[in-house]
Write a structure and sequence with these properties.
It contains nine helices and two strands, in the order E-H-H-H-H-H-H-H-H-H-E. It has about 250 residues and is mostly helical.
Length: about 250
């Protein structure tokens, strides 16, 4: 064996660090007591309730105003099942829609957490409302589309459905909330490189965010918790390592 080294491409940290994730979550929950966040939390509660009610009404209108079959008793049976479907679909679509609704207020959450826990940081990178809206719309559309496509597996494949739900939404919300935070400090190219390098950590963070959204009542302030949580996750990622990794070869 020689001592030559070959560059093998961008370094990627795929290791999962549960203690760092748990610490970030505890700090995010503690951030709810920050005075600057109280108004945002109250607003999030109101927006979340309104969002869920509107989703529930929209999905309910779809099921109850469409006759799927010509035989009335069969339609009644479908309507009965539709009651469960309304709740399930509203719950499934809620995280993406409420994230879109809250998107213009999440920057304030990140700023408050930074001011409290990371004082001395310079001003964030300027972002236009169009950039924020584009990110939120992309996350919402992708999340809704992929979850609707996965819906048959959620319903028909017990056991695998939970794993699929966590994996799919963990990836989507890890990516989405990471960009909400990272693009305040990095340009798009640098944020993408860092996300690829720490894909495992961000994916695990996304699973945590998915779990927060799945909790009754807690989900009403989940966008605030998710943003504060991802600020701590982002700040814990080292950004001074070389972009390329090398390893010995033959």
């Amino acid at each position: 064996m020689g001592k030559n080294e070959a560059v093998v491409g961008p370094a990627m940290d795929l290791h999962y660090k549960p203690f760092a994730v748990i610490t970030a979550l505890v700090r995010a929950v503690a951030a709810l007591s920050l005075p600057p966040l109280r108004r945002v939390i109250a607003f999030s509660l109101g927006v979340s309730l309104i969002t869920f009610v509107l989703l529930w009404a929209a999905v309910g209108a779809f099921f109850y105003n469409i006759a799927f079959f010509c035989w009335r008793p069969l339609n009644w049976f479908v309507d009965l099942l539709g009651g469960f479907a309304v709740v399930a679909l509203s719950w499934l679509l809620f995280p993406a829609v409420v994230t879109l609704t809250m998107s213009f207020f999440l920057d304030g959450v990140a700023a408050a957490v930074e001011a409290s826990d990371y004082p001395g940081k310079g001003p964030p990178r300027p972002q236009s409302w169009g950039e924020i809206a584009a990110l939120a719309w992309r996350l919402m559309a992708t999340t809704i589309l992929l979850n609707l496509l996965a819906l048959p597996l959620y319903l028909l494949v017990p056991g695998i459905n939970l794993v699929l739900f966590l994996a799919l939404n963990g990836y989507l919300f890890g990516w989405g909330y990471y960009e909400v935070v990272a693009l305040r400090r990095l340009d798009a190219a640098a944020a993408k490189r860092l996300r690829h390098r720490f894909a495992g950590q961000i994916f695990l963070g996304g699973i945590v965010i998915t779990g927060v959204f799945a909790l009754p009542l807690v989900s009403l302030v989940a966008p605030v918790i998710a943003t504060a949580f991802m600020v701590h996750m982002f700040e814990a990622l080292p950004r001074d390592a070389p972009p390329l990794a090398a390893r010995p070869v033959g």
